[in-house]
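Hey, can you fold this one?
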Amino acid sequence: MPEGTPRQDLIVGVDLGGTKILSGVFTPQLKRMATAKLSTKAERGYDAVVERIERCVRDAVDEADISLKQVRGVGIGAPGAVDPDTGVVLFAPNLRWKDSPLKRDLEKRLGVPVFAENDGNICTLGVQVVELDGKPQQLVGIFVGTGIGAGIILNGRLHGGFNRTAGEIGHMVLEVGGPKCGCGNRGCFEALASRTAIFRKLSDSIRDGAKSQLSEMLGPGEAIADLKSGDLRKALRKGDKLVEKVIGEAAEYIGIATANIINFLNPEVIVLGGGVMDALQDEMLAIIEATARDYAMTGTADGIRIIASRLGDEAGITGAAVLARQGLKS
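Sure. Predicted structure:
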């Protein structure tokens, strides 16, 4: 442990996703000390996932060569609607959770205060506080991974909305009657441009006879959905036309959603992140920005920055650490 760090001033940030759990130990100054990663295995149910979150936290603590007794609090972002006051996950379609008392159950297991929020909110918080030094007062973060999350900063503060569920941009309908989304609706942004949606389109096309480098990357018994976002980048570099088409379409949908945000909220900065953007930023960002500026109403996008987060995969754990630090101070 760094010299001068008080015995119980360390914090842990956890990013709970539909496919993986990432946890990190941070100093009070938000310097990352160690991380740990586990697959979520959401199909095993709520109790099993909570147990895996606990294990991931303990693994990160062990990796940092400290004791859990030295951790003052844990912040966690969950993919869905979360009540930050109670720490209850109201609805998380990608995990199939409803009214799940995540804060209470993790506090029982870990014995330290836990602070829970929507994952898009904490990623946005991490980018605003750590990456952008708290400067943008109006900021929207869009995070493209297994699903699509978002967070809104208004007047320098996280905006939760009337029911504390603001920012569910992934469930904004972009295509009436479009593909079915995990939330039950059709044509949601998430059902059109998330990692899940991209791999579904690729799988359907290959099943219908389209050629792709991805077929050669699959091992025995593997499905397209078992591949990673980075495999798409490898296929693109080999000139895969199918992957190029599907990625281009997803980038256009992200651009249209970005234009809607510009027209509606007019933030100073829109930050793009998540596993898909982290892997495919070079291929997608230019399309997203061009589409956004094309669809935005004349004059509304002037001076607005559309950028990719440099925090990459660590935006979630960083924001969760910020959340815990703020919660412990209040």
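The first strand starts at residue 10 and ends at 16. Let me know if you want another pass with a different chain boundary.
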